Amino acid sequence: MRSFTGKLAVVTGGGTGMGRELVAQLAADGCSVATCDIDEDTLATTAERAGKAASGDARITTHHCDVSDAAQVARFRDEVVERHRTGHINLLFNNAGIAGGGSFITSPQDEWERTFNVCWGGMYNCSRAFMPLLIASDEGCLVNTSSVNGFWASGPGMPSTAYSAAKFAIKGFSEAMLMDLRANAPHVRVALVMPGHIGTDIVINSRRAHGGSDDGDMTPEEIEAARAFVVATAGVAAEELSDTEVREMVKAIGEGFRDNAPLSAADAVTVILDGVRAGTWRILVGDDAHALDAAIRADPLDLYTPGSPTLASIFPNVRLPGRH
Fold this sequence. Notes:
9 strands; 2 domains; 11 helices; Rossmann fold; single chain; globular
């Protein structure tokens, strides 16, 4: 798919981060976009920005949808068909995702399942709902966002079992779909996106998605959960943190993840769209993604060794388990 002009794309999680950038950059290329999110206010901001950037006959529609709910996804699909007056789409970007459910042992079960159901279930529900519309096109592409945690099941300073499990599942599904589509719908391709650390609001948005209140108005239960998160992430002793310091550090961690990333959401999306245009089926995004990919291929055992020197070289400014 060398050009997006005149095409129709569906983008999930379009309210912020890479989703917002996907909508804006696709619209600037003359591609119509239907995008969904659970936050209608952020969707409105996305639509306004994309509308200003749009070229040609590109149209932007926004839709409220929780992608973990199959019924809502079916309604979203029907709205796309109706509002765009179409019987097909050309691109499906399964971009929506949240973090959370760090430990299978200590994290609340509902948090673990919510994370898995959004990341994996959202991709599955949307792929099921929109696949017939992709196949109905003369040229289509299924674009699934996994993560470096789809080939390395951990995270700097903390476990990420729900997120990693979902991202591994997305990677495996996408690779299986290469063969399935080649046999049954060869005009539809798959692109698997593996981003590293990208400057987005995923940490902040994930807290809200799990029902967290504003940072300045946390319940005692939220403070204790946040305290454990800060201890694991920042490597400080729990008794050293007052409730006020916990609130401040939660806010700082979310903003720091966004503002201090090695790659912006806009630059990441440029890499993704260039890869889709070029027909690449596996798109690594960021120097850290390339470094981790090379490291896990060279020595998969090393990356799970406490205090791994390889990880220390990739994440020199992050506390790693076993590294003091």
